[in-house]
Amino acid sequence: xxxxxxxxxxxxxxxxxxxxxxxxxxxxxxxxxxxxxxxxxxxxxxxxxxxxxxxxxxxxxxxxxxxxxxxxxxxxxxxxxxxxxxxxxxxxxxxxxxxxxxxxxxxxxxx
Length: 111
Known about the structure:
By secondary structure, the protein is mainly alpha-helical. 60% of the residues lie in helices and 0% in strands. The protein has one domain.
């Protein structure tokens, strides 16, 4: 039916990124902890895709803060201890992986 049609998607530029970041910012300012996993994923994607936008120290502080808040919510919601311990191990493993983007002073602070 549409064979031969040349369908172009418009170049939206940074619009999807701006919409996503605005939606996640609303979640953070309203303390909607059910969305913090998405916020954490977004922070990780931005860290990997846009080098230099955020310092390593700031990136780690954001990640640690959201992970800690998610763990605290698990306690508040009285989730099972096994689930909490598994999440704790997932978020804060005993083995620290050195990130090549980290500067040495940041590595010393968070080691």
